[in-house]
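Need fresh eyes. Consider my entry:
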Amino acid sequence: MGNLSNILYGILIFVRWGGLIIIAIITIGVLISEAAKSRLSPGRIILVFGSGLMAGVAIWILPTAMNYARTDANLIVPDHPIGGYR
């Protein structure tokens, strides 16, 4: 891999882990605030935990899905003009 690829890969890993940490902090904060407002039911705990888990999965998978979509779009509509570059 080239130097730019290493830099971009490092940024991707940082964004993924940073996003997961932020989502975990927000999820814990929502659980604590819900518990402080009223008695926390098991259904609400599962709902908040499930939303945090789905958000974490989305943060982890989204960059890969975008890369696959970009690659597939390049197969359908090439990124070079008809006749090539001169």
DSSP finds two helices and no strands in the chain. The mean pLDDT is 77. The first helix runs from residue 3 to 37. The radius of gyration is 20 Å.
